[in-house]
Each structure stands twice: as C-alpha cells, then as structure tokens.
Amino acid sequence: MSLSLKIKRVPTVVSNYQKEEVGRRSGGCGRNCFNMCCLPGAKLPLYAYHGVDSTSDEKAFAELEDADIPMAFLDSLILGEWEDRMQRGLFRYDVTACETTVIPGKYGFIAQLNESRHQRKRPTEFRVDKVLLPFDGNKFNFTKVGQEEVLFQFEASENGEVQYYQNAPIDVENSPNVVAINVSPIEYGHVLLIPRILECLPQRIDHESFLLALHMAVEAANPFFRIGYNSLGAFATINHLHFQAYYLAVPFPVEKASTKKISIIDNCGVKISELRNYPVRGLAFEGRNTLQELSNMVSDTCVCLQENNIPYNVLISDCGKRVFVFPQCYAEKQAMGEVGTELLDTQVNPAVWEISGHMVLKRKKDYEEASEENALRLLAEVSLSEERFQEVKALIFHSIFCSLNEEALDSEEDVEVQFAEDLLGMKLKQQQGSHSAMVAGTHDCLVMQ
Ligand SMILES: [Zn+2]
C-alpha cells in the first residue's frame, strides 16, 4: 500500500502517566517511573518460571507439581497484586462494576458496557498502514509508567525450578520482563506483559517474546486467563512491545468454534487448523509436543504477517495449548471509507478481544441493543475475504516451510514435511539436500514440489 492512510482515533489510556501529568515523588525524575532515572535501588517481586519446556516433558510437569511453589502460584500472584493496586486506587474506574451479558444466539458473544474506558482525551493521529514502525521514545511507552503500576518481574528460572522473591533488585543491565496493570482494564485482572521493557522494543512479535508469553499462559494454569496481542494496524495503541491478559470466566466464542485440520508436520507436532463457521477467518495452532515448537510456528506466522504488512491479532488460550491468529483488515477499510457510519459511530475497535467474541461496548445504546446480528456485522468488516485469506495462508505456509527447512539444514536431520493437499493447491514434499523446483516467495529458500 503506498497510500499514507491516517485516521483519527481516541487512544485508550493504559497507564496513569500517559497523560503527562507530572506528580511529585521523591528522587529521579520525580515520577518514580520505570526508567533509568528512577530505577537505581528499586525492588520488585520476581517470579522465575520453570525454564524447562513443560508441555514436552511429563517428568518436568510432575516436578513442577511437586515443587514447593505450586503451579497456580502465578495465578494468585497476578490477582493478589492486581487487587492490591485496585485498593490503592490506581485504576481509572472500577471494572468490576461494568455490566456484562452473554448475547443470545449460536455463538455466545459476550457484551460488556464500558463507558469509562474511552471517555475524553484528545484525538491522536495514528498511521494505520504500517504494521512495523520504529520505536519512538518521544511517544508514550512503558518506561514512563509509575513503578507502583508494575506488579512483578517474570524471568526464566536459572535452575529450572519455579522461584519467587518478594524483594528482588531490578537487573537494569539485563532489561527485565515485567507484568504491569492496565489502568483502563477490560476485565478482572487485566495486565500487560512487557518483554525486556528497558530495551524499548517496538510492537513486533519475535520468537523469544512469544515464547515468554506462552510460558506465562502455561504457568498461570487457569483456562479463564487468556493472553492477547494486537499488532499496529490491528488496534495496538502503543508502539512498545506488549501483550495483554485478563480473566473471563466464560468460554470465548472462538474457543468453541469448529476447526478444519490443514496440516500435520512430521517431526514437529504442531497441528494447524482453519476456523470454520466463525465470522473472522483465522488459524488455530495446537502444540502436540513442546512449547518451543508451538511458539516457533506461531512466531514464524506473526513474523511473516508483519513483514508483509498485514495487521493481525493473536489469542493464547487453553493455558498455552492453543493459539489463534487472525489477519485483519478493519483499519484499512476504515481508512478507505468502506466501513458504514453506523459501525463507526459505535467507536468499537475490533482488537483481539472483540475478534475472539468479547465485545467491549462504549455506548449504553449499543449495549442495550446488543445482538448477535450486530456483532456479526462488525466482525464481517474485520475478516479478510476468502480469496485474500487463501493468499495470506499461502504466504504463511511458505514461510513456516522455509523456517523448518532451515532448521533441518542446521540439524542435518532428514525431514519430511507433508501438508494437506488443499493447502497450496499442491502437495509439498521435501527432503534435505535435493531441491528440484522453486516456489517464489518473500524469502530466499527452496521448496520441493
Ligand atoms: Zn524517572
């Protein structure tokens, strides 16, 4: 897309320091922020997660259960710290007072009335035609949050066992992963996972960060705790790498959707399916063996979408066992003037939660009139067309395939990869060292036909 598309959007405030109201605090810059000015000497709880790939290794799982710190400890840590911040009045409103209902119909969409989340604030211009933009230190980012908004550090354990330290120093040199509150919560326990916060990474998925998010889902060990990701152009509002997560005690409609298996890749153990009869076209990834494999395949997919400038959303569900990826085109349609005013007037941004079936509504009117039909009307504008989805799917599989090919070359193992015949309209079969045909793609790699 060569057009420079811009739309006016009212951003949601996710931190109390986003408004640039300087408070009076002791030392540093005076705001007790999460940056070099205020961090020296600061302490924060540290949760060290089980470093071993826990879904692959039954023994490791058993060890995890036998460990002094029970597996659900992370779950109670998140909620305990979150409630503490609620008592300290750090949230902009009481999310537990927001009305929620399940919309009658076959999907079971959930509607929430949240009038506070988007009120006031001056409009900001966001570019919506770029999925990747460089980090801009002048804009709001998470190093500007108050330290009281940060709940704990989340790091891999050095000895492979879960560990917890109430008062751990902050290792500034190694840029910690942190979990912070979202001061404009969508639901109970709404937090942000910010990988290597001090490195100021832009909103862009990489293999290491995605694996971190998966570990968080596994260790929280609560099926009601989901982790989501919005790319730029798919309703991320801050260009500083972050995942969101919250608790919702009902299934998301997407979790109940039927799927059609597309492929099983030998020696890999990740099942990839396509959603069926769901209003937004998307892919579901399920780990069979290891967390690392699942993580790699989803990361390859996200990287492919980013590099091709395709906005997307990701939902990590089922305690890290299942991941949904949705390429989307709502912002593009919006910028081209293709979305009807009735939908635009609702000001609902179809990010990962809405796409997964949790509709966060801003106007009482829309809440009172919430219906499956209205939800479907919104989601229809989000989904890629069948034709475009097939194109995007082909791009994704091409890059997954290239990545497996590279891994195989590295490990010098023989690999045989088989995709379902309908995948790219051809059967791909590949064995190391014998290339006979090339399929054009964005990467330089060879695919046997
Ligand atoms: Zn500071």
Automatic annotation (TrEMBL):
It is found in: Cytoplasm. Pfam families: GDPGP1_C, GDPGP1_N. Residues 253-399 form the GDPGP1-like C-terminal domain. GO terms for biological process: glucose metabolic process. Keywords: Cytoplasm, Guanine-nucleotide releasing factor, Hydrolase, Nucleotide-binding, Nucleotidyltransferase, Transferase. The keyword NAD does not apply. Residues 74-246 form the GDPGP1-like N-terminal domain. GO terms for molecular function: GDP-D-glucose phosphorylase activity; guanyl-nucleotide exchange factor activity; hydrolase activity; nucleotide binding. One of its GO terms (cellular component) is cytoplasm. The keyword Nucleotide-binding applies. Belongs to the GDPGP1 family. PANTHER family: GDP-D-GLUCOSE PHOSPHORYLASE 1, GDP-L-GALACTOSE PHOSPHORYLASE 1. This is GDP-L-galactose phosphorylase 1.
